[in-house]
## 1
Amino acid sequence: MKFREKLASFMYGRYGNDQLGNFMMWTYVVLLIINLFVSSVTLYTLSIILVCLTVFRMFSRNVNARNKENLKFLAIRKKFLSFFKLQFDRTRDMRRKVYKKCPSCKAVVRLPRKSGKHAVVCPSCKNRFSMKIMPFAALLSLIITIFLALIALIVLLIIFI
Ligand SMILES: [Zn+2]
């Protein structure tokens, strides 16, 4: 048998790769690169576990279970991406727009930034609520965002170095 046929018959009935597998491989690569600079045993152990899990998933015959894991991963990834997109839009529009969650359906409503009290009608559930826009709120939220990002960075450094 040629190598390709051998490989195909070995992989028959096994799961193979998916988006979760790709994500795990890329995370592994990123961990390796970070570890070049910090050389932490924790990171090294994590990356080895990650590779073992990735290989285990590829060669697993329990296709159903692996598929479920991938679907879960895709759902979480979607949530993350929409969260970051929202934060990005928020920061980009900070001087002109205000983002506010509807207290009834949790949809995010975008309003022009004019300080004072406003009556708002939620476009998705038609719920009416009022909100106050304070002057300098944009500056304040920028400062808080930077502060939180700094704390997150310090915590990561403490954990991995
Ligand atoms: Zn609503």
## 2
Amino acid sequence: MSKCQCVICGKWFDESEMIDEYCLDCYVEAPKDDPQKQKLKDFLQTELTRAEKLILVFYYYDEMTFREIAATLNLSEKRVAQMHSYIISRAKVFTDGTEGKDKFY
Ligand SMILES: [Zn+2]
């Protein structure tokens, strides 16, 4: 498996974990004036597995299709779609701050 070096932190990662010349962590850390990105960053750092992070970043920032993401991560397209909808349902709870139980009141 080929390895790539992140231009920011200098660590080596699998090619599938790189976004352009950055590792995922450095890519997410890159400063941008977008409150949505800040919320997403919090969510990424606290709630998700590494594969789940990659799906979100590829989909929203690189605008890749599920098919392209599936090929990159060596997963089926169906699996990526399932993981994506599961991530989104959790992201909504996280970014809205709403808990299911609150809806009863
Ligand atoms: Zn890095």
